[in-house]
């Protein structure tokens, strides 16, 4: 992978019109960023040039990273919505989108398509469609990795106290919350659950208390 210095990445960011970045499916062939790379004999690469993960404000890599968090039906029934949101707010992440819905089966099937051959898949889909869920998009530095740590191990028996699953669940089949497990997975899941117009672009006033400016 070609690794360019940060200022080059930021040049790309400022040149790019598409908010999805060159790795997004809307990367126009005539995009100025792509032209910039072509002029210099470079290929825009995924990774360093994940332009949407750079903040134009702070220039800190990964500040605009996003993840999908969902309070599952058991979490809703246990009245945990507020506490789960509070953990992400208090940690310093920014809420970008949220909806309360009974997830349709086809959405759940696409969400869990990697698991469709697993023996627990039918029960998983039945459980996930048994009641409403709260789907959310959270944004911030390293939010994918950090939220996986905050949520805890898939199996609540292994989840540490202090994690959501470690505090509020006992069995793997009812583990209260979902968190995307990779940056690419998060992007895919956010697109599944949310229309682009539902992602709210806003400035959080404590940005400079959370990040160096
Ligand atoms: P998975 O994607 O492996 O875990 P995670 O949610 O931590 O990313 O599995 C998806 C969900 O499937 C998991 O949250 C709970 C359920 N599940 C079971 O019911 N039984 C199992 O043995 C496993 C591995 C998962």
Automatic annotation (TrEMBL):
Recorded GO CC terms: cell projection; mitochondrial intermembrane space; mitochondrial matrix
Cofactor(s) required for function per UniProt: Mg(2+)
GO biological process terms on file: CTP biosynthetic process; GTP biosynthetic process; UTP biosynthetic process
Domain Nucleoside diphosphate kinase-like: start-end pairs: 64-201
CDD domains in the cross-refs: NDPk_I (cd04413)
Keyword Nucleotide-binding: yes
Signal peptide limits: none
First-listed, main subcellular location of the protein, grouped into a coarse class: other
UniProt-recorded Gene Ontology molecular function terms: ATP binding; metal ion binding; nucleoside diphosphate kinase activity
Catalysed reactions listed for this entry: a 2'-deoxyribonucleoside 5'-diphosphate + ATP = a 2'-deoxyribonucleoside 5'-triphosphate + ADP; a ribonucleoside 5'-diphosphate + ATP = a ribonucleoside 5'-triphosphate + ADP
Enzyme Commission code(s) on record: 2.7.4.6
InterPro entries: NDK-like_dom, NDK-like_dom_sf, Nucleoside_diP_kinase, Nucleoside_diP_kinase_AS
Active site: 178
Annotated keywords: ATP-binding, Cell projection, Kinase, Magnesium, Metal-binding, Nucleotide metabolism, Nucleotide-binding, Transferase
Keyword Metal-binding among record annotations: yes
Residues bound to ATP: 72, 120, 148, 154, 165, 175
Subcellular location(s) per record: Cell projection; Mitochondrion intermembrane space; Mitochondrion matrix
Homology family: Belongs to the NDK family.
Name of the protein in question: Nucleoside diphosphate kinase
